[in-house]
Specification:
Elements lengths: L2 E4 L9 E7 L6 E2 L4 E6 L4 E5 L4 E6 L6 E3 L3 E6 L6 H20 L1 H6 L1 H18 L8 E4 L9 E7 L6 E2 L4 E6 L4 E5 L4 E6 L6 E3 L3 E6 L6 H8 L12 H4 L1 H21 L18 H10 L17 H5 L28 H16 L2 E9 L1 H10 L9 H15 L5 E4 L2 E4 L5 E3 L1 E3 L2 E3 L2 E2 L7 H16 L13 E5 L18 E15 L2 E15 L5 H16 L7
Helix pairs in contact: 11-12, 11-13
């Protein structure tokens, strides 16, 4: 089914955009994440990526043309798909609108005088009530930082009310459903009001902050925005940028604010705090400190301006005098702690809940003899600068087996089943907030060393919240490994729209029967969750038989 793409709103003040250039032309294949065009907004020229896969069937706004937000930008669908209905609907709507404008022109002329009077009265009323945003004041709303974001949580503010702000300064760190991202200011001035406090969650477009001239009274604006009545004329938006003295003033004050932080580095108990006692730390550092019971104010920060980062928490050793004393809790006393769900945790709950209760899961368990793989890994890692893991080898074996069983490498959609001819393996990685699944693309075409290097890089990015959205998209099959935690066997929930996920347990030493004799052996249990809508039991079993061949005879992976 064809997807209609409209001119996006790429900034909080954008009302129209100009297509600077198209990076795709009609008839081109488009993958999710591909850059479609460069769009010039009122602030900058930005890349606009596709959220859909298919063929670019129609371009609605040519290079150099300007159109309002939500105007038809492009249509993506199946090659050869008939989109005349969509185009006719668009033009019909446009013709209807023109006719309505012509029909209403006479009525507009007749009531012009009345409207002028009403407008005059309304303007004077607004001036008195303060509902119109004053000149030089900019309202900043909760941005949409990902294509699926519906609400965001302010992880931390890097500015406080009364601070000077320059265009490009980082205002806050905002946690979305995918990652924690820095949000920068597009304006110069003073941070007059913070609308969403640290730890609070709000919908996209909610009042985030107000920036303007120092001393400006914005109480009327705040109350008006809460009631949805504030308005602002376009010419006033550029006022802060034109006033050069404000930029100079902000630049002069920066060294004054940074100097105390450098001095405070002499004391571990002060180096991370501002004059008002606020601790500067990354969201991940705060979460780790909370989990470990560490007082952030006592941790020396190695980040910018003494900011506490993850490694500071991991390397911190509390200074104690005498023996450590555990907190006393009276016997029989009830105790608990409420922790607000993070955006990632909400997203995991939503996606996995949908998968578990919509896809008919069934599970296939198999035990593999790991003797040959243990020996193979030992020999392979004797190569210079080589150290592959069992997980790397399993990933390689799975990718080769999937090429022989495309039904298992499939995906389920409401209107179709897709048999993928390429193999992109998703690797589940545990992070403090939950779980992410970076993707190793074309895994069957890569060597063991390449797979090892890529998995390490992706896992590192995942734990540091540096993964890009495109690095977590497009998997055709998923692997989850808990063997390193000593888990011998478990089952996983399918990562939709994939049709299956493989759960990998640990290698255990135990008695096994070989040639009629009981000997010591090494085995590993794998469990595959399958979606019965796409994979029948026999199909899943045949795949596991092929996988068994490669895992128990790993030299075949090099063939």
């Amino acid at each position: 089914m064809a997807e209609v793409i409209k001119m996006p709103r790429l900034s909080d003040t954008m009302e129209e955009g100009t297509v600077a250039s198209w990076l795709k032309k009609e008839g081109d294949k488009v993958e999710e994440g591909d850059i479609l065009a460069e769009i010039e907004t009122d602030k900058a020229t930005m890349e606009f990526e596709s959220f859909y896969e298919g063929t670019l069937l129609h371009i609605g706004i040519q290079e150099g043309e300007t159109a309002n937000v939500d105007a038809l930008l492009a249509i993506i669908g199946e090659e050869g798909e008939d989109i005349s209905g969509l185009l006719d609907g668009s033009s019909a709507a446009s013709d209807s609108k023109e006719e309505e404008e012509e029909d209403s022109s006479e009525e507009t002329e007749e009531t012009a005088a009345e409207e002028e009077e009403e407008t005059s009265e309304k303007d004077s009323s607004e001036d008195a009530g303060g509902s119109e945003i004053p000149d030089g004041v900019e309202v900043v709303t909760m941005p949409r930082l990902s294509d699926t974001m519906e609400e965001g949580t302010v992880a931390s503010w890097l500015k406080k009310e009364g601070d000077k702000v320059e265009e490009g300064d980082i205002l806050a760190e905002i946690e979305t459903d995918k990652a924690t991202m820095e949000f920068e200011s597009f304006y110069n001035g003073t941070l007059l009001h913070i609308g969403i406090q640290e730890g609070e969650t709000a919908k996209v477009d909610s009042l985030l902050a107000i920036i303007g001239e120092e001393g400006t009274d914005v109480s009327g604006v705040i109350s008006s925005l809460k009631s949805g009545g504030a308005k602002k004329e376009a010419p006033k938006k550029e006022a802060p940028k034109k006033e050069a003295p404000k930029k100079q003033e902000a630049k002069k004050e920066k060294p004054k604010k940074e100097a105390p932080k450098k001095e405070e580095n002499k004391s571990a108990s002060k180096n991370t705090s501002s004059s008002d006692g606020r601790v500067f730390a990354s969201p991940l550092a705060k979460k780790l400190a909370e989990e470990k019971g560490i007082d952030l104010a006592k941790v020396p920060g190695s980040g910018e301006n003494g900011r506490v980062v993850r490694k500071d928490i991991e390397n911190y050793t509390p200074v104690t005098s005498g023996a450590g004393v555990q907190q006393f809790v009276a016997t029989g006393e009830e105790s608990y702690e409420d922790i607000n769900n993070s955006q990632m945790r909400k997203a995991i709950a939503k996606s996995l809940g949908k998968s578990k209760f919509t896809a008919p899961h069934y599970y296939l368990n198999v035990e593999f003899d790991m003797e040959n793989m243990i020996a193979f890994r030992g020999q392979f890692n004797q190569l210079p600068d080589t150290k592959v893991s069992y997980n790397d080898m399993i990933l390689k074996a799975v990718s080769i087996a999937l090429k022989q069983h495309p039904q298992v490498n499939s995906q389920w959609f409401d209107d179709k089943m897709r048999l993928n001819k390429h193999v992109h393996i998703g690797v589940a990685v545990a992070v403090p907030d939950g779980l992410v699944v970076p993707v190793v693309e074309f895994a069957n075409e890569k060597s063991l060393q390449q797979i090892n290097a890529e998995v390490k890089e992706l896992a590192g990015k995942a734990r540091n919240k540096k993964l890009k959205p495109e690095e977590m998209q497009g998997s055709t099959f998923t692997i989850s490994n808990l063997g390193m935690f000593g888990i011998t066997n478990f089952t996983s929930i399918i990562n939709q729209p994939n049709s299956a996920i493989l759960s990998v347990g640990s290698i255990i030493e135990k008695p096994v029967v070989k040639d009629g004799k009981i000997v010591v052996g090494n085995t590993m249990t794998l469990s595959m969750a399958c979606d019965h809508r796409t994979i029948d039991g026999a199909t899943g079993a045949q795949f596991l038989q092929t996988l068994k061949t490669y895992i128990e005879n790993p030299v075949l992976m090099l063939a």
